[in-house]
Amino acid sequence: MSGASEMTGKFLQAGNSAAFRLTKTGPAQVELPIRSTAVSKELEGEWKGDYELTGYARHVTIKLSNRGAGGATADFVIIGKKVNNLPVDLVTQEGDLLTVESHATGLGYEGRFDKGSGQLKGTIAQGPLEVPLNLTRSH
Known about the structure:
Elements: E1 6-13, E2 16-23, E3 45-53, E4 56-66, E5 72-79, E6 83-86, E7 90-94, E8 97-102, E9 107-114, E10 119-126, E11 129-137
Antiparallel strand pairs: 1-2, 3-4, 3-11, 4-5, 5-6, 7-8, 8-9, 9-10, 10-11
């Protein structure tokens, strides 16, 4: 480091080397990772629904809970031929839109809360596949 705005060094790759000098030219332009947000009280709790994919019925349960400053978390379970407990790493709510994502499995749910019916109306997606999935609060 040469002061607060310059870095010099030697770049090495495959037996080759090249000197370099990097100079800071403006403010950092970094996109921070999206973090989970809290969900409203009307969305906290357990939601259930069913969908069919490739001829097999699947039962879905998503249990949403807030965890303070860490935003919301979810238990996301899909039961088809076997029980799949999906590792959820992102839960966000913007207005009436809820998103629950499991990046490790590539699965996600996106739905809008319909106050009239009390349902979450949306889709479950894995890669390019999207299937309608409406969830109803479990009592």
